[in-house]
Amino acid sequence: MRLIETERLTKVYQREGRWFPSANDAVPAVDRVSLHVEKGETLGLVGESGSGKSTFARLLLGLETATEGRLLFGGEDVTRWGFKRLRTIRSRMQMVFQNSYSSFDPLFTVERIVGEPLSNYGGMAARKRRRVILESLDMVGLGAAYAERYPHELSGGQLQRVNIARALVFQPELLICDEPFSSLDFKLRRQILTLLEELKIRLGLSYLYITHDLSSVSRFCDRVAVMYKGQIVETLPAARIAEEALHPYTRALLDAVPVQDPRLRRSKTGRPVGEPALPHGESVIQGCRFCSRCPAAMPVCTTVEPALERKRPFHHAACHLYANEAEGKASQTFQIVKE
Ligand code: SF4
User: Fold this and answer.
1) Containing H/E element for 312?
2) Which of 149, 181, 212, 313 is most enclosed, with most CB atoms within 10 A?
3) H helical segments located in 34-185
4) Where residue 270 falls among pLDDT bands split at 50, 70, 90?
5) Dist CA 150 CA 166 (whole Å)
6) Model-level pTM?
7) Of 101 and 218, which is predicted with more confidence?
8) CA proximity to 248, closest of 261, 258, 233, 237
9) Which CATH number fits domain 2-92+172-245: 3.10.20.310, 3.40.50.300, 3.40.50.720, 3.10.20.30?
10) Chain centroid, CA 4 distance in Å
11) Where are the alpha helices (DSSP H) in the chain?
12) Which NCBIfam families did the record assign (predicted)?
């Protein structure tokens, strides 16, 4: 069952400060994205900084209004719901932010921080509220003793546990984790990953896990969607990403993974060349958006935008290399072009 689903969801920003805005001043941060998260599934959303991952998360949470497309939650179209109505589903989706310390008020105790979302919604008796807060702290491995502490008295791992506890007070169905380990060392990352895995089983949670770190994806996620300049360029089962990724951009991301996970160790092929991603402002682009960096680019790539199409069971990619060709032949073409 699909918990949340988007259909060609688009968010376009207009550049400010122009007297006469043109089509080039429309900046598509999220461009026709169709994705879904199944109930109980962990979907990894990967891509470089500025690829549109966080804007996509904000669209799901109703913190941004979509320019086009549809958002469905539990099968219901919530795209045009107003602020009040959206509150009813917002408690069912919660966000775990990336930088714990800066997302907390240093003058608040842990109890107040974790209970903050409940205050925003109101209507809960003090005794029940305290019980819910302590239960959430307990679920993330922090006892009642932590309730009276302040952020500066906690370690990075404890702060991230508080962050997760805050997201759990509404007993959500979906947790959107935006780079949840970015400020943690390797050991703490493993601990928080394990905690999230345990919570998933215990509470029947679904996750949208946003990251630029592919090394954690194959362990933690069921499925991966790769985003480049606002578009999804590949989706496939996470366990198969190291061996079966097709899109040159995904392969380049894999090449850039520091090889802590030996399954992700691979030959240095397909690394993108040239300048980093074009600024989003250059939005009127013909053909493939990865064209200027792709070592396998062909003439057709400069004029025809590749569609996200099924290439194998449960595997979709947007790349002309694999269009209407047998898989083996396409791979061969890729090798030759690189040489
Ligand atoms: Fe490279 Fe062309 Fe595929 Fe784009 S469509 S990723 S430019 S080969």
Assistant:
1) strand 309-312
2) 181
3) 53-60, 83-90, 110-121, 126-139, 156-168
4) very low
5) 14
6) 0.86
7) 218
8) 233
9) 3.40.50.300
10) 13
11) 53-60, 83-90, 110-121, 126-139, 156-168, 186-203, 217-220, 241-244, 248-255, 327-338
12) oligo_HPY
- CB of 214 closer than 6 A to ligand 1? no
The answer to whether residues 240 and 313 touch, using CB atoms and an 8 Å cutoff, is no
Residues with Cβ < 8 Å from 145, sequence gap 6 or more? none
Q: Is the CB of 140 under 6 A from ligand 1?
A: no
Residue pair 93/176 in contact (Cβ under 8 Å)? The answer is yes
The amino acid at residue 204 is G
Q: How many CB atoms lie within 10 A of CB 320?
A: 23
Q: Is 306 in the pocket of ligand 1 (CB under 6 A)?
A: yes
* 42, amino acid identity: T
**Residue positions counted in the chain:** 339
Gap between the Cα atoms of 112 and 114, Å rounded = 6
Q: What is the pLDDT of residues 135-190, one digit of tens each?
A: 999 999 998 999 999 999 999 899 999 999 999 999 999 999 988 877 778 888 88
Q: Is the CB of 154 under 6 A from ligand 1?
A: no
Q: Say if CB 128 and CB 70 are below 8 A apart.
A: no
Give residue 337 CA to ligand 1 midpoint distance, Å: 11
Kindly tell me the sign of the dihedral angle through the C-alpha atoms of 258, 99, 35, 223.
positive
DSSP state of 306: P
